[in-house]
Design a protein that fits this description.
about 220 residues, mainly alpha, Endonuclease III, domain 1, about 60% helix
Length: about 220
């Protein structure tokens, strides 16, 4: 891990530059869960089209998604890519979730995360998206953008274990109140996404970057 590894300072610096992000872009907690599944290996712009299509077809509920054939659902969400696989995963999730809403919300965070991870097609990032943005739990989401940024900052290699990176961020805010951590983790994730799209791309655009981490791309 590199020097000056401080997620708190990172949050304030990005916040000063980009302002509030108010993530996740969704109208309901269930829509967050649907989006978390559809955004796997897909650009958010394509997911938005798929979500709009689900709404147009009156399919933005667990019961409705379970009521149609998998092939039909796949056509509705075709825009998000891997649509056959995602239709299968979405129906598996909705079949598990339907009717359990209140019971799941009453669970503590750790058993709720374990329950989500037991559902077909739900991995750590997807589960944590749901926990943070749908269930309002103080967990930090580790995604590709976060891995890339942390490596370029000299903090952790991109292939570091998910849990190691998550504990690193959550530990930096451990003394904060739970309600504060929920807001901070929500905003920090959105800020990292905004930064990755503006500067910390696969091919970095370092000129004008608010972090000025000193990263030097490998020369080919």
């Amino acid at each position: 891990m590199g020097k000056e590894a401080d997620p708190v300072a990172l949050y304030y610096r990005l916040q000063d530059h980009y302002g509030p992000q108010q993530w996740w872009p969704a109208e309901t907690p269930f829509e967050v869960m649907v989006g978390a599944i559809l955004t796997q290996n897909a650009a958010w712009e394509r997911v938005e089209v798929a979500i709009a299509s689900l709404k147009q077809h009156r399919l933005m509920s667990a019961a409705a998604i379970c009521s149609i054939g998998q092939d039909e659902l796949a056509e509705v969400i075709r825009s998000c890519g891997y649509f056959n696989l995602k239709a299968k995963r979405l129906q598996a999730f909705c079949g598990w979730y339907n009717g359990r809403e209140q019971a799941l919300s009453a669970l503590e965070t750790v058993p709720l995360r374990e329950a989500l991870l037991a559902v077909h097609g739900v991995g750590p990032e997807t589960a944590d998206d749901m926990l943070l943005y749908a269930f309002q739990r103080p967990v930090f989401v580790i995604d590709t953008y976060t891995r890339r940024l942390f490596e370029r900052l000299g903090w952790y290699p991109q292939k570091s274990p998910y849990q190691q990176l998550q504990q690193f961020v959550e530990g930096a805010f451990s003394s904060w109140k739970e309600a504060e951590r929920i807001v901070i983790f929500n905003e920090l994730h959105g800020l990292i996404v905004a930064h990755a799209k503006a500067f910390c791309k696969k091919q970095p655009r370092c000129m004008g970057c608010p972090l000025q981490c000193g990263y030097e791309p490998e020369k080919k």
